[in-house]
């Protein structure tokens, strides 16, 4: 169903052979993925101890941990690509808000459990399908990170899909809350598959998947889950973008205030 | 009737004395069942409430590695809560009722969690001291007379000792770091030392349930015995870290081969038990809020499961 990568693995340039321009683009892209997992993991970890039922508290902590693990691998790779001696923690904690490149969706507040589920479902749908293809990337490091993450993302998608169905086809209240969450969050879903100039360049070079090619499988999954949930798929919604280019909502600043607190208060120390 | 009852009770005590574990379907005295439900549910509640003071630092952890470790640790506590609620359920208690008792204030949880976590070093102290004290309380429970509880505790203790090492490692990193990190470690120790000594409960003379629990082998050491063990274990560790335990009376006693130490402030202990600690209202409030705000989620899950079951039945028909 998906278009195969344009560059076969055997033709891959080794890390050192990337042109400075591609290397810079790859650095920006890996950072974008790392920021995305970091910020969503941060949001999910805010639920820890406050979930609607102990089993789901555990599930959300699990997903947050998976995302944090993926984040660390990505930041480590980004640091290597940059080659300036920055560490994973320098990249995660010591940048300005405009330098974070996560899409707007993942910085949105947890809201009620329905909002958390909708945010997670929209992200997981993209994340899983993107990783399936990224796993075939000619960039060996990205492919290896994707190989590990795709197994976890498959579980995340199963979890959030099941909850979409339960909430949509549960009680009148759960349905009303799900509808409200969709009305708020659907408009952030388009950014996930809208490539930035950097992504377009890497897509053209065959290093990352073409998002247009991911759409059929993503749309089919969404249609299936919404069908089971008895919820119509929103149509004709204006899509907000900007996060992947550093134009964020007001929420990110508060996330960073907490996230960066220790590193900013005690610069240069080891923990 | 009475004769049969006495025989059962004698047989029960004989099994206990022979260290044969009691299983859910075995006959047991009502008081034994009640004591266990109280103790196991309190322990489960402590795991649940105990997620909050550490959860407080997840979003502010100073490095990605520390954040990961802390989040896994808090998640382990949720897991411990699950095993323990399940163990209590084998005695006929329902999770809903146990939670209702926690929320109404009828059931207690460990008072240590009513103290605030104010700095990153508190993540070190909670692991090193609080989990250290919990382990001393819990290791004997791996041999407690009630089988499901003992088996749950084997798993809990394995994870707790891992947590304790992590806590110590946080403290060690701080103590080997910059002066402000070492000061942070000392300040946290000053706040946590006495409250952890209180975790072993009132002095033996003031602990009315100890004798019966020892006799039923639910408990294997007295509060004062465990408190002494804790001090003997922790004072040398604090010295190794280069930290000072905030008790001028701490001194090695050659004759007793143990450390002498000062008197716990029992007035503070009873005050916190009665609800007057810094965080009692916040901790319980957070649990009640999570439960109440989660009601519609639990209802939706049940309603959906019912719809599915009905549809499956219709299809089968």
TrEMBL record, chain B:
<dbReference type="InterPro" id="IPR052703">
    <property type="entry name" value="Aromatic_CoA_ox/epox"/>
</dbReference>
<dbReference type="InterPro" id="IPR007814">
    <property type="entry name" value="PaaA_PaaC"/>
</dbReference>
<protein>
    <submittedName>
        <fullName>1,2-phenylacetyl-CoA epoxidase subunit A</fullName>
    </submittedName>
</protein>
<dbReference type="GO" id="GO:0005829">
    <property type="term" value="C:cytosol"/>
</dbReference>
<dbReference type="InterPro" id="IPR011881">
    <property type="entry name" value="PaaA"/>
</dbReference>
<dbReference type="GO" id="GO:0010124">
    <property type="term" value="P:phenylacetate catabolic process"/>
</dbReference>
<dbReference type="Pfam" id="PF05138">
    <property type="entry name" value="PaaA_PaaC"/>
</dbReference>
<dbReference type="InterPro" id="IPR009078">
    <property type="entry name" value="Ferritin-like_SF"/>
</dbReference>
<dbReference type="InterPro" id="IPR012347">
    <property type="entry name" value="Ferritin-like"/>
</dbReference>
<dbReference type="GO" id="GO:0097266">
    <property type="term" value="F:phenylacetyl-CoA 1,2-epoxidase activity"/>
</dbReference>
């Amino acid at each position: 169903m998906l278009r195969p990568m344009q560059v076969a693995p055997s033709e891959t340039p080794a890390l050192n052979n990337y042109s400075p321009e591609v290397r810079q683009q790859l650095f920006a892209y890996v950072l974008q993925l790392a920021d995305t997992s970091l910020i969503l993991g941060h949001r999910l970890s805010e639920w820890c101890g406050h979930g609607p039922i102990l089993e789901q508290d555990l599930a959300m902590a699990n997903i947050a941990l998976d995302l944090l693990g993926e984040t660390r691998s990505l930041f480590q790779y980004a640091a290597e690509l940059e080659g300036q001696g920055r560490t994973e923690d320098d990249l995660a904690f010591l940048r300005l808000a405009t330098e974070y490149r996560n899409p707007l969706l993942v910085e949105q507040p947890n809201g009620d459990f329905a909002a958390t589920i909708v945010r997670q479902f929209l992200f997981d749908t993209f994340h899983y399908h993107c990783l399936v293809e990224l796993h075939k990337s000619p960039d060996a490091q990205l492919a290896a990170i994707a190989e590990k993450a795709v197994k976890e993302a498959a579980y995340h998608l199963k979890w959030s899909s099941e909850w979409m169905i339960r909430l949509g086809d549960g009680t009148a209240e759960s349905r009303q809350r799900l509808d409200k969450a969709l009305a708020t969050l659907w408009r952030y879903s388009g950014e996930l598959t809208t490539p930035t100039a950097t992504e377009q360049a890497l897509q053209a070079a065959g290093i990352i998947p073409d998002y247009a090619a991911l759409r059929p499988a993503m749309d089919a999954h969404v249609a299936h889950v919404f069908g089971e949930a008895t919820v119509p798929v929103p149509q004709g919604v204006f899509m907000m973008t900007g996060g992947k280019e550093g134009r964020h909502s007001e929420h990110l600043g508060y996330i960073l205030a907490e996230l960066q607190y220790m590193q900013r208060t005690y610069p240069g120390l080891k923990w | 009737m009475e004769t049969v009852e006495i025989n059962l009770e004698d047989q029960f005590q004989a099994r206990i004395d022979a260290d044969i574990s009691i299983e859910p379907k075995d006959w047991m005295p009502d008081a034994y069942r009640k004591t266990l439900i109280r103790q196991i549910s309190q322990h489960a509640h402590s795991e649940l409430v105990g997620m909050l003071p550490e959860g407080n630092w997840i979003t502010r952890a100073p490095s990605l590695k520390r954040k990961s470790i802390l989040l896994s640790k808090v998640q382990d506590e949720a897991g411990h809560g699950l095993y323990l609620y399940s163990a209590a359920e084998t005695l006929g208690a329902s999770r809903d009722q146990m939670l209702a008792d926690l929320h109404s204030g009828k059931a207690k949880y460990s008072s240590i969690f009513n103290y605030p976590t104010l700095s990153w070093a508190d993540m070190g102290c909670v692991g090193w001291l609080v989990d250290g004290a919990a382990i001393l309380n819990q290791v004997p429970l791996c041999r407690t007379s009630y089988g499901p509880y003992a088996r749950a505790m084997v798993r809990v203790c394995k994870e707790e000792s891992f947590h304790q090492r992590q806590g110590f490692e946080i403290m060690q990193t701080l103590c080997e770091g910059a002066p402000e990190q070492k000061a942070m470690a000392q300040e946290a120790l000053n706040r946590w030392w006495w409250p952890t000594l209180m975790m072993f409960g009132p002095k033996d003379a003031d602990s009315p349930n100890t004798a019966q629990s020892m006799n039923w082998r639910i408990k294997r050491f007295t509060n004062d015995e465990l408190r002494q063990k804790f001090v003997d274990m922790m004072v040398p560790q604090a010295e190794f870290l280069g930290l000072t335990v905030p008790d001028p009376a701490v001194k090695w006693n050659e004759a007793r081969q143990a450390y002498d130490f000062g008197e716990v402030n029992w007035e503070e202990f009873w005050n916190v038990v009665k609800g007057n600690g810094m965080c009692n209202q916040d901790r319980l409030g957070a649990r009640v809020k999570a439960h109440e705000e989660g009601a519609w989620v639990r209802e939706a899950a049940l309603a959906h499961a019912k719809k599915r079951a009905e549809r499956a039945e219709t299809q089968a028909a």
